[in-house]
Amino acid sequence: MGDLVTARLVLHPMTVGEAERMVAGESPGEGRWAPGYPTDGDVSAAERFLGNCAAAGDPRPWGLYEIRRRENGRAIGGVGFHGPPDERGALTIGYGIVPSAQGRGYASEALRGLLLFAREHGVARVKGDADHDNIASQHVMAAAGMRPAGEDDRVRYFETDWNGTAPVST
């Protein structure tokens, strides 16, 4: 499985070894991580990825991707799938960008790249969510082409459906 490349980013599929080193706080080398990377969310995602690997094997390509800037190779966040597509061809995504790189459209660009990859590989629907007060994340999903699909008392749900059906409220 190779890297996914967008205009400004490289989405690098994380290996078990890379995730283990991230969780242990072991930097891959000087200048490879942007200031503030990895965040607690990145470490949590790496732990979830490792748990999935231990339980069911490496889920790639439906795993975790490190978001790197093409111009210098620095990791600025993560994006990924919470697991492989379900029996209806749907999956859930998550993402995050370090504060020092926010506000430049990187999260939307990374998410668009991952959505394109999912569509090209037969995924029917991609779902995501954001807390009500996380307006920036809601804007990221909308900018990547996801539509609002409902909400509850805690979060607003978004999805992209390539089967031509309306979003399903949750």
Question: What labels would you give this structure?
Answer:
single chain, 4 helices, disordered C terminus, 8 strands, alpha+beta, Aminopeptidase, 8-stranded mixed β-sheet, 170 residues
Report on the architecture of this protein.
The chain is α+β, with helices and mostly antiparallel strands and 170 residues long. The chain has a single domain, classed as Gcn5-related N-acetyltransferase (GNAT) (Aminopeptidase), CATH 3.40.630.30. The chain has helices at 16-24, 40-56, 106-120, 135-143, and strands at residues 4-5, 9-13, 64-69, 75-81, 90-97, 125-131, 147-151, 155-161. Strand 7 (147-151) and strand 8 form a beta hairpin. Helix 1 (16-24) crosses helix 2 (40-56) and helix 3 crosses helix 4 (135-143). Residues 165-170 have low confidence and may be disordered. This is GNAT family N-acetyltransferase. InterPro entries: Acyl_CoA_acyltransferase, GNAT_dom, Ribosomal_N-acetyltransferase. Residues 9-167 form the N-acetyltransferase domain.
Task: Furnish the topology, listing elements before pairings.
Layout: E1 4-5, E2 9-13, H1 16-24, H2 40-56, E3 64-69, E4 75-81, E5 90-97, H3 106-120, E6 125-131, H4 135-143, E7 147-151, E8 155-161
Parallel strand pairs: 5-6
Antiparallel strand pairs: 1-2, 2-3, 3-4, 4-5, 6-8, 7-8
Helix pairs in contact: 1-2, 3-4
Organism: Kitasatospora albolonga
Protein name: GNAT family N-acetyltransferase
Domain N-acetyltransferase: 9-167
